[in-house]
DNA sequence: GGCTCGATGAACT
DNA sequence: GTTCATCGAGCCG
């Protein structure tokens, strides 16, 4: 389909053709993560054909200060993106099977960000559905499409190659033609969207973390069905319980 | 070099 | 409610 007049007009502003919403400026992320996080609710994250309205996020703080943060012990090859400039995407692999995505906060060299925990898919639901249902053969209800950080990453199609990408200068992955890719495969942006009424923003302890649970840096939109259920951290059970060592006959 | 466990999700009882 | 899949980062020796 050739670009219509609306898409053509938006092309100059950087606004996204699916939503008409403009990208957030980089300065938005140049603040502490716990200030950025509640402001991210209601914003729209776009990756290729899928757009998602954020309904739940968690802030992770500074190296040496927030024991729950990946950056707590300083910079490593894995978390280096978190120490880069704000407004970039930090995608990491966890539990041997899941990807999760953060948006980097504060100036380069600092090391904090906001984990994207859940959202409502507002465009490209059929693509998200296909990704989420792939391999399982099960139908996924709409509200479950991006309910939880790993599900969100799957719905948006985030993977290793998206780690470090700039979400404040909307565009396609390196090498692709930005004009041709606008609104298409790989196009990444965080858009203004529509923030919820301040009274609807709630906060509480972060989900599933083993340290720093007392810090109420999880933020969500009250009553939204796409917000993931709260889970306390459960220490892993020792493996030796399953060991086949003991088969004496008596 | 080896071991532990994690910002999880899906299947199962 | 409980169990398990699965692998990489980080810590320990």
Automatic annotation (TrEMBL):
Biased composition (Basic and acidic residues): 237-250
Similarity field: Belongs to the DNA glycosylase MPG family.
Alphabetical keyword list: DNA damage, DNA repair, Glycosidase, Hydrolase
Keyword set includes DNA repair: yes
NCBIfam families listed in its UniProt record: 3mg (TIGR00567), PRK00802.1-3 (NF002003)
Native species: Planomonospora corallina
Keyword S-adenosyl-L-methionine assigned: no
PANTHER family reported for this sequence: DNA-3-METHYLADENINE GLYCOSYLASE
Pfam families: Pur_DNA_glyco (PF02245)
Xref: SUPFAM superfamilies: FMT C-terminal domain-like (SSF50486)
EC number: 3.2.2.-
Origin superkingdom: Bacteria
Name listed for the protein in its UniProt record: Putative 3-methyladenine DNA glycosylase
Gene Ontology molecular-function annotations: hydrolase activity, acting on glycosyl bonds
Region (Disordered): 196-250
Coiled-coil regions listed: none
InterPro entries found in the cross-reference section: Formyl_transferase-like_C_sf, MPG, MPG_sf
């Amino acid at each position: 389909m050739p670009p219509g007049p609306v898409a053509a007009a938006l092309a100059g502003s950087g606004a996204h053709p699916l939503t008409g919403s403009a990208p957030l400026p980089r300065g938005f992320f140049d603040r502490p993560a716990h200030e950025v996080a509640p402001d991210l609710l209601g914003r729209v994250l776009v990756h290729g054909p899928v757009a998602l309205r954020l309904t739940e996020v968690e802030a992770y703080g500074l190296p040496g200060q927030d024991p729950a943060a990946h950056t707590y012990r300083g910079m490593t090859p894995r978390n280096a993106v978190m120490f880069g400039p704000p407004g970039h995407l930090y995608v990491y692999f966890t539990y041997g099977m899941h990807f999760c995505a953060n948006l980097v906060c504060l100036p380069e060299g600092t090391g904090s960000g906001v984990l994207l925990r859940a959202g409502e898919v507002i465009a490209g639901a059929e693509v998200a559905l296909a990704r989420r249902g792939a391999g399982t053969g099960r139908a996924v209800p709409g509200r479950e499409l991006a309910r939880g950080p790993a599900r969100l990453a799957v719905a948006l199609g985030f993977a290793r190659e998206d780690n470090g990408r700039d979400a404040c200068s909307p565009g396609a992955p390196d090498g692709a033609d930005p004009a041709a890719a606008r609104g298409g495969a790989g196009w990444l942006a965080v858009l203004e969207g529509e923030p919820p009424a301040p009274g609807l923003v709630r906060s509480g302890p972060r989900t599933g973390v083993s340290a720093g649970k007392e810090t109420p840096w999880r933020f969500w939109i009250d009553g939204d069905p796409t917000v993931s259920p709260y889970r306390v951290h459960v220490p892993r059970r020792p493996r030796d319980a399953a060991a086949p060592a003991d088969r004496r006959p008596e």
